[in-house]
Design a protein that fits this description.
By secondary structure, the protein is an alpha/beta fold. The protein has 18 helices and 27 strands. It folds into 3 domains: about 290 residues, TIM Barrel, CATH 3.20.20; about 200 residues, Rossmann fold (3-Layer(aba) Sandwich); about 80 residues, no CATH class. It is globular. It starts with 6 loop residues before the first strand and ends with a strand. The structure holds zinc ion. The site of zinc ion has 7 residues, from helix 5.
Length: about 600
Amino acid sequence: MHYKNFKTVTYCVAGWVNHITEKDLREQTEWLQKYVGIDKIYLETYRDEFAKQEQLDMFKRVMKDYGIEVSGGITTVTPDLNDSDKKRQRLFNTFCYCNEPMRARLKEVSEYTARNFDEFIIDDFFFTQCQCEDCVRQKGERFWEEFRLAKMMEVSRDLIIGPAKKVNPKVHIIIKYPNWRESFAQTGYNPGQQREIFDSIYTGTETRHGAQTDQHLPRYLSYSLMRYFESVAPGRNGGGWFDNFDCDRIDTYLEQAYLTAFAKPKELMMFCWPSIVNNKRSTPLGFMYQKLDAIVGQLGNPQGLKVYIPFNSQGEDHIEDFLGMAGVPMEPVCDFPKFEEAGSGEGVGSVAACRKVMVTAASLKDPEVLEKVEAFAAAGGNVIATAGFIIGALQKYPDQLGKLTSVSYSNRTLSADEFQCAGAGPMGKNYIKTAEAITYRLLEHRNNATWSVMNAGHGEYHESVLCYDTYGKGRLTILNLPEMPSRIYDLPPQALTQIRRELEVSGIWIDGAAGVSLFTYDNKTFGLYCHTWDGCAPQEFFVHVKGEANQLKRLNDGSPAMPWSSFPMEKIYSRPLDPRNPASEKESVFYVRIQPGDFCFFQIQ
Ligand SMILES: [Zn+2]
């Protein structure tokens, strides 16, 4: 292995495998080992065509010379196999699983792969959207979601896992999940059940350019989706997978590697060999992997605000990623967390991490979510509900929600260009103007029944965008975010800071503008990354640490010691967290300046 804390891997697509000569392969391997350092490849046996046996053998022989491990790979796309396939309604050549020749082909592919390898991965075309007449007939009266979830379980078991294990009983089969989690159920991706039958899983972390691509994924997904899949199959999330497509500048590409690495993966997959060789975007990888390796080895377990995203759910898509881009450490989970009085780990916030949970419109997929919310709050937890959750719950479970809060919704909007934010003094309330009005769905609360932490509005009309109700030993906090999630980035830093303070579970928050992500771990370490999005600039802000801390020690990334980057950062000041109560817990405040494309990690001392 080139690095101590992760394997670096790439993927070889079948069409290319079939055509490369041994001489070219050796030259390209030299290039990759010089600039990147590759530990392992996934050698594809099928993608519209079979990779020829003699080419697979040649690859295995050459890779052995370089000490590179070889596993297999399958991409479940195929050309029409006969005339009747012209009637199929397939996207990207994905299979129609309702006809015998295609099913037989997949079985054959699986057997061929298992004969060649003791491990293989399935690329993320392992879904179906075919609505041909055969699929419509088989679906019958069911909804597409129900039909496809069941269909892809059957296909996984009967056409991939079963045949492969028959040929090679020790074969380890990995399913890679795409970066479009919100659409899994509709296309048959079924991690809730597939995690039981696959040996391990893998995570798509290809965020690319957040604005100039068809997916529009906030970059923070490269971190948060890794963490989500760690909750899906603890210890069996094999790695994170990114590529350089639509990455206009080098940093756009590298960021995917950084954020995947901050989630502490087993493997970093750079898709794919022919696209990374001789590509300027890959040339800094080896250099940066050394730094990441040095840092990651010093970090504890990632920690963030748990966001409940049940299986087969959708709603307020990527809200956790937009918050992550604004500096809130997030930890999406597939199961509603248990409230715990005490947490584990030595971090400042290990207790808080077990005492807060966020619910969004997606959480409403769980028919028991309101009971869980109520029990969590009653026991002493803080449940943070988004506007999407509240509005959905008011429609689906008005009586249950009414037990918890006075907040109501009547289809009105709030247009806000003034935000009431905490000031420095004990009674301080500043009204911060934004250049443009930001639109919200208007949630109304009964004053003094529900308490507003932050109001927003225009002129003489304001409403709460952050409020809470106490319940039992705990509370329900309602966070209203801009109707257009990307407008979160336009909120004034003071408003963002109010949100960060409310959502923190690590005892750490920052007070700058959006565009810097905060990564927190359970051993008093944390990191900052300044994103290189369009219009980015260096950022200056303060890091707030709960309690008495004196210094932030920089985690060494292997760079030679330099006065400006090696000295510990001294505390600027400390003060009571509640300015009205001088005896309240203290916060310690540190100054940070960070350049776009840079990450820095610290230990609190
Ligand atoms: Zn079909």
